[in-house]
## 1
Amino acid sequence: MRAATIAVLAPGLLALLPLAIAQVYPVTQGKTYKFEKVADGVYYATGGFGSNNVVIVNDQDVLLVDDGTTPAAARAFLDDIKVITNKPVRTVVNTHFHYDHTDGNSVFGPEVQIIAHDYVRMAITTFDVLNREPFITSQKTAVPARIDALTKQIATEKDTQKKAALQRDLAAAQTSLNQLKEIKPTPPNVTYSSKMVLYKGPREIQLLFLGRGHTGGDTVVFLPRERIVCTGDLMESRLAYMGDAFFDEWVTTLGALKNLDFALVLPGHGAPFGDKGLITAFQGYLSDITKKVADLRAQGLTADQAATRVDLTSHAKDFPQITGPGADARGVRRIYAWMDERGKK
């Protein structure tokens, strides 16, 4: 594939620093994934189904940070990696246990080390991850619902061109459903508890557990020489899913993240950024949603009622996805459960 260039903002996001100069990274386009070369041998992979991933090409082999939503997505990812290197993938790091970062694990053979925090192995082996959030809402019910809706639209659509487009969408949705059926939750085969350091030729790769946050076992992948940190969903450039969060600890963990000497964040969703002010802004959001939901709970509201009422619009300048009052009900339910857990201590 022919390389191109695109602009991504580093440091900072355009919404936060409208006058900043965008950093231009070379891009190689695969069939599904786009690879932005952010440093020598380091690529930010986007455009696939699920998480944004990172490809680290070393002297002898390749390390991946996360691997996608389904085995089919992981295979497409591996096929596209061939446009940037012919070296074998020998290591995969799962930043946390959620399906969109780990459900490609099953495509790798025994020669590949799949590394994650101890908590990730525990979660995948004991949580029945395909029958809990976030998989249920995002995949298990969403894809069949879309198939049903498209089928009904096709039955009533009179315009030939619109009907053909709907039929293409339906075929894609049915393919997605078949791919979901192929998933076999596969835990990591190597785990660590606080820190693991890998040396790949001259490259040092640190796997760090800075504390609980987005989940109970988030890994940050830190490249000290390149001053790059891969954060999974511990820190995105947008609001993250909060259904498994530890809210006060998350704020503290983000403080530890800011203490690392990095110039660029490669998040599990969103876009690369370099402004630590965005991390501070997210800490403020976490503290605010926790306090405001606690206040609504004290008024006797259920979690779902609080989710429609909580007003976080003051954070819209940092997180433009906020367009009015309300928050993801799954996150608010988790705040209620988290407060219950704290009350039992």
Note: DSSP finds ten helices and 14 strands in the chain.
## 2
Amino acid sequence: MLVHYRKRPRYHVNIPIASLIDIVFLLLVYFLLTTNFMVNEGIKVKLPQARAAAPQTEEEITVYVDREGKAFLDHSEISLGKLFRRLREKIGNGKDRLVVIRADRRAVLNKVVKVMDLAKAAGAARLCLATEKEF
């Protein structure tokens, strides 16, 4: 006995991807808007006077002060006497160089003020104290 099976037509499944694309796009926008972008902010001590604003193209000089009051320049520890000479060399003739001081929040204020005074005495016309944004 010979049995012939009829071929059934295949079912075509249509997946609606338009709503899926909308949901993925909304999630992308949500995460872009809620992400915190890290921005280095600082308290400006002295601002230069200018009539037209221009983007800063020069590199700043960064001095780090740790919790014990030790100063670091170019990621190496340096004494306060050498710090004065190195800052004077780095500033050179560019009297408008920006010096940023990144001090640990538990550092003794007197040590940080000494570093700020050294930078000012070395010829830094602009001086900033870096802070973190409070959430």
Note: Confidence is low (pLDDT under 50) at residues 42-50.
